[in-house]
Amino acid sequence: MHSMISRRPFAALIPVVALATLTSAHAAPPASSPWAPVDPARMSAAIGTLASDDFQGRSPATEGEARTVAWLIAQYRKIGLEPGGEAGGWTQEVPLLRTRIGTPSRLDVTIGGAAMPLELKKDVYLATLSPVERIRIDSAPMVFVGYGVHAPERQWDDYKNVDLKGKIAVFLINDPDFDARPGEPVAGRFGGRTMTYYGRWTYKYEEAARRGAIGALIVHDTPGASYPWTTVIAPGGEAFDIVRDNTTDRPVPLQGWLEGDAATRLFARAGLDLATLRVKARDPAFQPVTIPGATLTADVPVSVAHLRSHNVIGKLTGAKYPGETVMYGAHWDAFGVGTDTQGRPVIRRGAIDDGSGIAAVLEIARAFKAGPKPARTVMFASWTAEERGLLGSTWYAAHPLAPLAKTAANFTIDVLQMAGPAHNAFVIGAGQDSLQDDLATAAVSQGRTVQPETRPERGAFYRADHLPFARAGVPVVAMMDMAGPYDLLSGGVPAGEAWLKAYMACYHQACDAWSANWDLRGAAEDAALVYQVGRAVAFSHDWPQWKAGSEFAAIRAESAAERGGE
């Protein structure tokens, strides 16, 4: 997400030990080190290259992409990987759609015959993933559908068979139990403060589209969304999607957010109290509410562009089970060249997000290549367009280059910490699958412990490139070091909190830039941790499993026969 750009480089915000004092760029780490066989100095060099001016912020379908892809292929070749892309090559082409909403010629809600104008970015934020030049909606009825959740396995249905065809769905952000009080029927049904996929705005738009809505608006509140209204409107009406190759998986034509106060006023004009409806929406007996007399009219221009981007994929073919796969991945893209709040050109380099993940994947690939050939094929993916909506990994999951039913595990690395060794590590979406248990066991061998993320209400498990694989049934582990404050060997939790606060101030901003003063030993520990877990899977014929309570368990069960019944 976007936020205000700081003039100060991120590196200047935290005191760290110079990496040059830890290990040379040419010497392997000691075999006894908790980050072996990963090399912190080589990781730093890779991040520095990816975040350099030459790579122009690595925005998809730009010269920055061309340079990034060429560099990645060169690294894969140097390591000794085999091409894992299409037609025996290193890449998989990803067709992208880019849209941008223009200034509406009309945008209002009519209630009881009186028009209530909606000011773009102040009262409402709009976007579209439809490749059309104009979106016209004429007096579409508006229906409040609570949290917009249909979850049969949790005995929950906000829709109750309401007809949404040709209508505007309005719903609340997060899960139905996010604001639940003790004793309410919904309390704990969706994991309490831990967000499920039903709480994500992406799910809500998808469900509205499946039910025929022509528009979908989420009522914004900062606690439920985990970010302020300024973050909602930051993309400026621009949206990205993969090019859909079927007619049944179409997005809702007009999607967006209603600013909280504007939503309250709109409901009040229709004789409804939004605060009361919020409480009613936390009851399984909730019934959709047609907003009395309210219709939305919009006439919005759209600019459309078709782009071509690329995933970069290398592999090591398995010696015993070559048709079975273990996958490591990170996204190569960042936000490219833009302007700051004063209109000056800046490069949003994405050094930590996710140059650190790419550096880790390269180190893991080197470790596999240096050892005996794994029993299973191991793939190493560098995804495009994660920052545009997990699009590179989503395209792969829809067009896999190895069968997903026989993909034993996906390990995704997205943001590693640069503040040194730690006593702990974090697991995202704790309790989802057996790989997370394996991660905790492996951490003990490093002298560390694993704990759940500290802000599960943010739904980090549903916001990185492992998600398309989870939705396809593949067991996953996500290593995301912004999951909480690390208990650092130097400075403890307070130092970990200071690092995390400084990093989040630069999240997706120009100050996420490389520094020679980083201490990458902690990042290397985390890379070595997922290497250890994945190596055990790669050298076995066991199949990691989803936990019984996971929303992805049933999907994996459907393909059990392809794995020999497990």
UniProtKB/TrEMBL annotation:
<dbReference type="GO" id="GO:0006508">
    <property type="term" value="P:proteolysis"/>
</dbReference>
<dbReference type="GO" id="GO:0004177">
    <property type="term" value="F:aminopeptidase activity"/>
</dbReference>
<dbReference type="InterPro" id="IPR045175">
    <property type="entry name" value="M28_fam"/>
</dbReference>
<keyword id="KW-0031">Aminopeptidase</keyword>
<dbReference type="InterPro" id="IPR046450">
    <property type="entry name" value="PA_dom_sf"/>
</dbReference>
<dbReference type="InterPro" id="IPR007484">
    <property type="entry name" value="Peptidase_M28"/>
</dbReference>
<feature type="domain" description="Peptidase M28">
    <location>
        <begin position="311"/>
        <end position="529"/>
    </location>
</feature>
<protein>
    <submittedName>
        <fullName>M20/M25/M40 family metallo-hydrolase</fullName>
    </submittedName>
</protein>
<keyword id="KW-0645">Protease</keyword>
<feature type="signal peptide">
    <location>
        <begin position="1"/>
        <end position="27"/>
    </location>
</feature>
<keyword id="KW-0479">Metal-binding</keyword>
<keyword id="KW-0862">Zinc</keyword>
<dbReference type="GO" id="GO:0046872">
    <property type="term" value="F:metal ion binding"/>
</dbReference>
<keyword id="KW-0732">Signal</keyword>
<dbReference type="Pfam" id="PF04389">
    <property type="entry name" value="Peptidase_M28"/>
</dbReference>
<dbReference type="GO" id="GO:0008235">
    <property type="term" value="F:metalloexopeptidase activity"/>
</dbReference>
<keyword id="KW-0378">Hydrolase</keyword>
